[in-house]
Design goal:
By secondary structure, this protein is α+β, with helices and mostly antiparallel strands. The protein has nine helices and 20 strands. The chain has a six-stranded mixed β-sheet, with helices on both faces. A five-stranded antiparallel β-sheet has the order 13-12-11-14-20.
């Protein structure tokens, strides 16, 4: 019997805010019998930020496009604010869904000034209403004084703010962001992530964000939906996704992860580097693979151990060491940046994990 597809529905059960978006077993195919996304179920409540996370080609952008109305669903349905907007029989066009979208390239109109770009979707408003809304958004986005500039006269961060203001101008029920930080340098990215997160929470804007960067997802999202090969693999809080990944793929995608063979006993999980705590309520096979994060291990530089340091990466606040075990397997371990061990030093490793994540051998080998 095939297990039911994972969804964000259970993760959001405790949320009492109104339900804004629901995907019910949505499938979309560009080529017959070759779905780009398959059986996707998601739920997003008012004011939440949900991140679609995964590698290139996993179906993130397709999911975004079916929600926006740019693609038709071939199975399932999409419910927006209580109304079915997409199914095999129903397709509400994008302009009638009240969904705002910020594209990866921002897609600002080059021949329009900032104020005109922001007010583009407000043609139905009176002139006074339009001017007032544009002024409010210019103030909100810290763009006062830039209203008469053209997009090419703005920095990348300013262009992003204009694109965001244009998307928010008509008061959409849902905001979609497609890789919004991909065109910014790292310093600007961190600044804009903080500013955007603060803005979205202050305005209680329901948001769905697409990214391939797990750090970006951790910084922005209330819930993360990890996609792989067109399927939803896990949907939960950032903390749960990192500490309790559902599959080895999720474990590796959201951070450095090594996997060591282990044997589950009554006292713990025995591995080459030591004993890990026995998982609570574990009833699986005795022979498993144990997920090991770099902060699960501690180096003891005795010069007598059977493991050896093969490389060190300086990462500012910490060092990341690669260590070859007696079996030839590699593991990774972090230390404070001031703790430096020489290359090829013989060391001992001590486990310091507070919880253990294990996968049976079949799930590890097929993930």
């Amino acid at each position: 019997v095939e297990s039911p597809a994972p969804s964000c529905l259970a993760a959001n059960d405790s949320n009492t805010s109104p339900l804004v978006l629901e995907l019910r077993q949505v499938t979309c195919s560009y080529i017959p019998n070759q779905p780009a996304i398959h059986d996707i179920s998601l739920a997003l409540h008012q004011g939440e930020i949900l991140c679609l996370l995964g590698p290139s080609g996993c179906g993130k952008t397709t999911t975004l496009r079916v929600i926006a109305g740019f693609e038709r669903v071939t199975a399932g349905e999409i419910v927006l604010n209580g109304t079915v907007v997409a199914s095999p029989r129903i397709h509400l066009p994008p302009e009638r869904r009240r969904v705002g979208m910020v594209f990866q390239e921002y897609a600002l109109f080059p021949h329009l000034r900032v104020a005109e770009n922001i007010g583009f979707g407000l043609q139905a408003c009176s002139i006074d209403q339009r001017r007032a809304r544009i002024h409010d958004l210019l103030t909100m986005m810290d763009l006062v004084g830039f209203e008469r500039r053209y997009p090419h006269e703005l920095s990348g961060g300013q262009q992003q703010r204009v694109a965001l203001a244009r998307a928010l101008a008509p008061n959409p029920v849902l905001l979609l962001l497609d890789e919004p930080f991909s065109n910014l340098d790292p310093d600007m990215t961190y600044k804009m992530q903080d500013e955007l997160h603060t803005l979205l929470k202050r305005t209680n804007t329901t948001t769905l964000l697409v990214t391939h960067d797990h750090e970006e997802a951790f910084a922005m999202a209330d819930q993360i939906a990890v996609l792989h090969e067109g399927r939803l693999i896990q949907c939960d809080t950032p903390e749960t996704i990192y500490h309790l990944p559902a599959t080895p793929f999720v474990a590796e995608f959201v951070g450095q992860a090594d996997f060591l063979p282990g044997t589950v006993t009554e006292t713990g999980v025995m591995t080459e580097v030591g004993v890990f705590p026995r998982p609570i309520h574990y009833h699986g096979t005795h022979h498993v693979y144990v997920m090991v994060r770099p902060d699960d291990l501690e180096i003891t530089a005795t010069g007598q151990g059977t493991a050896r340091i093969t490389s060190r990466q300086f990462r500012g606040s910490e060092n990341l060491y690669t260590i070859r075990l007696a079996s030839g397997r590699l593991v990774h371990c972090t230390t404070p940046s001031t703790t430096v061990f020489p290359h090829n030093l013989a060391v001992e490793l001590k486990t310091k994990a507070t919880h253990t994540v294990v996968f049976d051998q079949s799930s590890y080998l097929t993930s």
